[in-house]
Design a protein that fits this description.
This protein is mainly alpha-helical. It folds into two domains: 44 residues, no CATH class; 197 residues, f41 fragment of flagellin, N-terminal domain (Up-down Bundle), CATH 1.20.1330. Helix content is 73%, strand content 5%. It contains seven helices and four strands; from the N terminus they run αααββββαααα. The strands form two sheets. It has a two-stranded antiparallel sheet. The protein has a two-stranded antiparallel sheet with strand order 3-4. The longest helix is centred in the first third of the chain and has 57 residues. The chain is rod-shaped and about 125 Å long. It comes from Insolitispirillum peregrinum. InterPro entries: Flagellin, Flagellin_C, Flagellin_N. Keywords: Bacterial flagellum, Cell projection, Cilium, Flagellum, Secreted. One of its GO terms (cellular component) is bacterial-type flagellum. Flagellin is the subunit protein which polymerizes to form the filaments of bacterial flagella.
């Protein structure tokens, strides 16, 4: 047909090669700019959706990890309160011992007031030892439930349930004393000994509760580290499926640009050869 342009075989081959190289350069440029070799399901559906699934689970576990961290903080608040209660009980015991050894009734009466003031602080400490609205040592203590993973199962234990322990003064068995009893001229020693015995029992209870909570906190810390490792593994696996090797892609880009330059030169030579032949006619 008149006006049609006919390309020689070599010219057509060079053009196709240049088009292919240009497409490869565009793809490599996309990978370098995005940092990914798979940007959509069109690039590699299997790798794309596998990577998304791994990242989704990593995200779910990150939420679980946040819950574990919150649980640890709840326990820390409770243990901190128990440590303060223990210090308070020790002060009360020291006051009781001082009163027991005192021969002055007025002094003993003053000491009884100090004793009762410290006792009231125990209840304040229990009520203030909360974190995010959860308190494991107050009167009517809360229960803390910490999930270990994003799944629910009727057969597997996927959570840790920590029952709070009422550590108020009354529950610990520490009673308020009267100035009349401690200030009496007789019988005050036996009365104070009874209070000291109650304090010793309360100290044991507080220490046992703190130890139990500490064990639970250690368990949660182990689970927290484990969850962190799993998240990193999932993210790493997801990245391996879709992330580009930037060093490799940079080398590819250089090679493709060189190929493109050579292809352009080759095409130019082919065109010149074709024109030289046409001049013969």
């Amino acid at each position: 047909m008149a006006g049609d342009i006919t390309l020689s075989t070599s010219t057509r081959s060079n053009l196709l090669s240049l088009q292919s190289t240009t497409n490869l350069i565009d793809r490599t440029q996309d990978r370098l700019s995005s940092g990914k070799k798979v940007n959509s399901a069109l690039d590699d559906a299997l790798s794309f959706f596998k990577s998304r699934s791994l990242n989704d689970r990593a995200s779910d576990l990150a939420t679980v990890k946040d819950g574990i961290s919150e649980g640890i903080n709840v326990i820390k608040a409770a243990v901190g309160g128990l440590e303060s209660i223990e210090s308070t009980l020790k002060q009360m015991k020291a006051i009781a011992s001082s009163a027991k050894s005192s021969t002055d009734s007025v002094t003993r009466q003053k000491l009884s007031s100090q004793y009762n003031e410290l006792r009231s602080q125990i209840d304040n400490l229990t009520e203030d030892s909360s974190y995010n609205g959860v308190n494991l040592i107050k009167s009517s203590a809360d229960t803390l439930t910490v999930k270990f993973n994003e799944q629910s199962s009727a057969t597997l234990k996927n959570e840790l349930v920590i029952n709070g322990v009422d550590s108020s003064a009354a529950t610990l068995g520490v009673s308020a004393v009267t100035s009349a009893t401690w200030g009496a001229t007789s019988g005050f020693v036996a009365s104070i000994d009874t209070e000291i015995s109650k304090i010793d029992s309360a100290l044991n209870s507080v220490r046992n509760t703190a130890q139990t909570l500490g064990t639970n906190s250690s368990m949660l810390s182990i689970r927290q580290d484990f969850t962190t490792n799993i998240i990193n593994t999932l993210k790493g696996g997801a990245g391996e499926l879709v992330n580009a090797d930037l060093n490799e892609e940079s080398a590819n880009m250089l090679a493709l640009q060189t190929r493109q330059s050579l292809g352009t030169i080759s095409l130019s030579i082919a065109q010149q050869s074709q024109q030289s032949v046409l001049r013969l006619f």
